[in-house]
Amino acid sequence: MNDFTKDTVIGEVLVKAPEAAPLFLSIGMHCLGCPSSRNESIAEACAVHGVDVDNFLDKLNNYEPEL
């Protein structure tokens, strides 16, 4: 289990848990490699993409990729 918060920067998530990238892709965030998205907080990304941040954090912090 991870302990990411609303203020965690996406770049940090991708360094600590690169396997979570599909979660960001699932909310329409397809530019994970661009500098602006990597410096955006989880809350900012969710706001831009119309996603409930608390629900997304729950999925992110409990994410286990399929084998």
Main features:
5 helices, 67 residues, globular, single chain
Detailed description of the structure:
The longest helix is centred in the C-terminal third of the chain and has 9 residues, at 53-61. This protein is an all-alpha fold and 67 residues long. It has helices at 10-16, 21-26, 35-38, 42-49, 53-61. It has one domain.
List the helices and strands and how they pair.
Elements: H1 10-16, H2 21-26, H3 35-38, H4 42-49, H5 53-61
Quaternary structure annotation: single chain
Q: What is the CA-atom radius of gyration, in angstroms?
A: 11 Å
**Helix content range of the residues, please?**
40-55%
**Approximately how much beta-strand content do the residues carry?**
under 5%
Largest sheet: none
Outline the low-pLDDT stretches: none
SSE topology string? HHHHH
Mean pLDDT: 89
SSE class: mainly alpha
- Give a count of the beta strands, DSSP E runs of length 2 or more: 0
Helix tally equals 5
